Amino acid sequence: MKINIKKLLKKIILVAFIIYVASILIEQQKTLNAHKENIAITQKQIEEANEHKESLVSLKENAHSLEYIEKIAREKLNMYMPNEKVYIDTGS
């Protein structure tokens, strides 16, 4: 009867060990998935920041061009060239 108890005890210990290892692997997989998701979010933020940076660099390069200055003067400051006729549509 001792032999049966020892075999049973070994099987119980083996099953408990397998369950323990499986639970550790599952938790590690969950953690790994969370980290992968964080990496994807961060990479998307980096891409958006790079696009914003490119638009700012483009704006900076064009800031001293006469076309840009004229555009801003017309749209933002309501300024016009001398002797230029301005028509305002008052009809709705």
Explain what you see.
It is a single chain. The model has no long low-confidence stretch (mean pLDDT 88). This protein is mainly α and 92 residues long. Helices cover 77% and strands 0% of the residues. It has helices at 2-62, 66-75. It contains 2 helices and no strands. The chain starts with a helix and ends in a 17-residue tail after the last helix.
Compact overview of the structure:
By secondary structure, this protein is mostly helical. It has two helices and no strands.
Q: Helix content range of the residues, please? A: over 70%
Basic shape: rod-shaped
How far apart, in Å, are the first and last alpha carbons? 102 Å
- Find the count of extended strands (DSSP E, 2+ residues): 0
Q: Which band does the percent of strand residues land in?
A: under 5%
